[in-house]
C-alpha cells in the first residue's frame, strides 16, 4: 500500500510538472519507481519475518533447555497418558454413568462458583464502568483512579489470587469464588465502560434538568440503552468462569477440578473416574456455551430491531 501511495505521489509530481511545461510525464520512470518501492517493501517484510522466526527459535531453545525432560526427548510419549486414560475408561465404560452421578455434586459446586462469581463481578464491574466513563462519572476527577483499579483487577490471573486466598482462608470454593469475581469485575468493567461511552447523553441531560440524582440518571437513562450488551458480555463471562472454576480446583479451590486432580494424581486404577469427570466438564461447557450463545443472539437481534 505504501508503495502504491509513493508511486501515485510521484505521478502527481510529474503531472504537475507537465502542466507547468517543465517536463513531460515519463511512464517508464513511474513504473521503475513503483517496482523499486514494492521490492523495498518485500525486503523489509522478509527481514521482519526472519527476525521473528529467529526470535521464536531461540526462545524455544531456551525454554527447552530449562525444561526438566526436554521437549524432543518426550515428544514420542505425548500420547501415552491419554491412551492409558482412554483404554481404562473403555474397560470400565459400564461404570461411567455411576461415576458421573457420583461427581455430579462437584459439578454443581463448580457451576455455583462460576455463577456467584459472575454475578458479583458483574455488579462491581457495572459500578466501575459507570464511574470510569467520561460524561457519566459521578466524580470526573477520579476517572483515572477507577480505570487503574479495573486494570489491576483484570491484570492479576485468577489462579494467583486463589493461591493467596487459599493460604489465608484455606481450601474450598470461597477462595475460588472471590478470585474469579475480582478478575471478572476488572474484565467486565473495561468492556462495560466501552459500551457506556456510546450511550446517548440527551436523556441524561433531560433528567439532570429535572434535578435527578446520579443514581437515578444512570438507572433511567443509561442502563436501558446498554442493558442488552451488558447481559451479553455477562453471559460470555459466565462461560469463561466455568472453565476458570474447574481450573482453580487443581490448586485446592474445590469443585470438579479438585476431584479431577485427585483422580489423575492416583494414576492407573482411577483413570475411569478422570474420564467421567472429563465427560461431565466437557458436556457442561458445551451446554452452557450453546445456551448463552442463543440467548446472546436473541438479545443482539432484539437490539437491532
Topology (elements, then pairings):
Layout: H1 2-20, H2 27-66, H3 71-74, H4 80-91, H5 96-102, H6 104-131, H7 143-155, H8 158-169, H9 173-196, H10 202-209, H11 214-248, H12 256-266, H13 271-304
Number of strands: 0
The radius of gyration computed from the alpha-carbon positions, rounded to a whole number of angstroms, is 29 Å
Give the helix proportion (percent range): over 70%
CATH fold node name of the largest domain: MetI-like fold
Order of helices and strands, N to C? HHHHHHHHHHHHH
User: How many DSSP H or I helices?
Assistant: 13
β-strand percent reads: under 5%
Structural class: mainly alpha
Rough outline: flat
Largest beta sheet, briefly?
none
Structure notes:
30% of the residues are buried. With 305 residues, the protein is mainly α. It has 2 domains: 2-59, no CATH class; 88-301, MetI-like fold. The chain has helices spanning 2-20, 27-66, 71-74, 80-91, 96-102, 104-131, 143-155, 158-169, 173-196, 202-209, 214-248, 256-266, 271-304. The model has no long low-confidence stretch (mean pLDDT 79). The chain starts with a helix and ends with a helix. The chain has 13 helices and no strands. α1 packs antiparallel against α2 (27-66), α11 runs antiparallel to α13 and α12 runs antiparallel to α13 (271-304). It is flat, with a radius of gyration of 29 Å.
